[in-house]
């Protein structure tokens, strides 16, 4: 009768120390991993050491699964989710584990090297059974050696039930002091033991980068992907500095200072194919051919864009009307003459060089008709303030007078008058109307 009791006593002792005579548990359901894509993003963490608890307490049950199976499943899902070939270096270490696995209290399963999913998965499979003591302190101290010489930000991920453990606060504090802000500690708690949770919370507090996460909360593919992203994936890289990350940038290499849209492509408000920052003629009408500066093409250089020119191919220097067709300069019988092809540099009173031919022809006509005195009128559109336009039109009229005097027209026969936007001849609400309102007009001065 004593023998069965002795056998039961021996079995209970073995359960306490080695996990023998343990009940069987259901296998942890597999998870469809959601692999994190870090392409085009900066890394928050370049090095990681995953520490797996394989001690005897992990052979206990938690719900219908063993804590060890939950831990290895969590580690496997983590490995399957991490981004590969982006510059992350990884290591895998266990502590405890059954004596048949190793006699070492902590075991380096995968030394720090470029993260390789297949290699890490094979390394994890080496720890197939829990058992033995729980030397977390030794595992953390060994992790310091694993990370020795590593560059960049590092992470220590500890997957454990937290019991029964010697308080690891001291060695964790020393590890944190060694790496300072270059190290974060991320504990993943398996089970719900209050003492174990308290131990893991201490590690998280020492790490200073986050809270304890329960393995239950990482059981889904997207849940683990969110967790991994939070540790490894930083801000989107923006190689050209346009404010749109490389992963979303359809137009990489945008020059500095160029405004871009949500796709990282240069803004082209008028759709003429020339970026706003380089467009010297914004607001070009749709379908209008433009040059490299975004200004309407004027093939015959008569001052009327091709899209509005009803008489293309006008010989150089020929006076034209608003439609680009030739007209007689200062035609006899008229009391005023309007010119749209006498232009100025934007916002200035400097006469554009392509207007010199027209003014030279006007000067010749004035010298031919010596009894004709004229008022040179300057007119603008309604862009800008009325006071600004008035002053600008006066300066431009004076500039035209100055040019004609320079061509030999007596100053006594000329006077300048700016009207600003006061006398429009077309609708300032349209681009075409504004173009017609910007004009130089000669009026007979009786």
Terminal Cα separation, in Å?
143 Å
| Biggest sheet character | 6 strands, mixed
Strand order within the widest sheet?
A: 6-5-2-7-8-9
The whole-number mean of residue pLDDT values reads 87
Helical content stands at 25-40%
- Gyration radius (Cα, Å) is 41 Å
Strand content: 15-25%
Rough outline: rod-shaped
Low-confidence spans: 1-22
Record field, number of beta strands: 14
Which structural class is indicated by helix and strand composition?
Answer: alpha/beta
How would you describe the overall organization of this protein?
There is one protein chain. The N terminus is likely disordered. The radius of gyration is 41 Å and the shape is rod-shaped. The protein has 446 residues and is of the alpha/beta class. Helix 9 links the parallel strand 12 and strand 13. The relative contact order is 0.08. The longest helix is centred in the last third of the chain and has 21 residues. The protein has a 6-stranded mixed sheet, with helices on both faces. The chain contains 10 helices and 14 strands.
